[in-house]
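A common beginner's mistake is to predict each chain separately and then try to dock the pieces by hand. The better habit, illustrated here, is to supply every component at once so that their relative placement is modeled jointly.
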Amino acid sequence: MSAGTSRRRVSARVVAAAILLVSLLLAGVVSFYADSDPDGLSKVAIEQGFAGTETEHATGEGPFAGYGASFVDDERAAGGLAGVVGVLVVLGLGSGLAFALRRRPEPLADAEGARSGRAPA
Amino acid sequence: MHVPDGFLDAPTSIATGVVAAAAVGVSLRKARDELDDRTAPLAGLVAAFVFATQMLNFPVAGGTSGHLMGGAIAAVLVGPWTGVLTTSVVFLVQCLLFADGGVTALGTNILLMGVVTCAVGWVAFRGLQAVLPRTVASVPIAAGLAAFVSVPVASLVFVGLYAVGGAASVPFGTLTGAMVGVHLLIGIGEGLITFLAVGSIVAVRPDLVYGARRVVERHELVLRSSGAGA
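With all components supplied together, the output reads:
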């Protein structure tokens, strides 16, 4: 009918699954190969001589502090596990928030007065 | 660019905390208009993707690395207000679970890497959309360029905060040059990642991308009004 459907439409579920899979792979596997040099701010802080003003982190002793599961010996597995846990926790909190806030169809509003002008699909 | 505890003094950290809390509060209200059946399922996934990508430090010049900040990509994919919320979730989890970014600096980090990059990224994206051809293909280009701009701007805001409440006295000009210089390079990475990620989704389902909606809807209108397609 319209241009968007001339090609076979990839379902939103497939898109969602692909984003999740890519995120898990990046955090769980690829992150092992990330550059371990200091980042832009850390490097500038070192060069400008104020890196030493950093104070101890309140949650620095946590089980996943520094993106490594402290209870796993293997470095690769510890980092990968931390990454996967992080992705799932962020996904859970982010999705929970989004669904709590999302605009729901308003069953009480009469159809004529609906501001969107588009009936629920 | 995660700011650790101790870089900024207490008054400045409290002030950024208040500003960040206010920005999140406003976003909680405004995001309701962005979050519908298409964006709501994406919001958590975008947060997860930003978290994952932030683990991937890439090398920039001279023993320095950088990673995605994510405000621009989040703003384009799910909307600017929802973008502030998704990036805030990322910084909150990074701070509490992974000890990345100071607890007293959480407001600073949400402000710099969430609010500033979402705002700058979104405004730059809309500006670029106004001058680029109104096609779906322009969306990832505008998103990538907007993302590139957002990173040095965030580093400039850090310099401003440091000038007000930095723990050490560093010459303003030197700090500005160093921060903006390295973050221009990191911005290139931010732009590329944003271009690729937005481009991938736009290629299969442009209607799912918040920043592409006007283009998609306009095309559908044009096609409908001109009869049976093509």
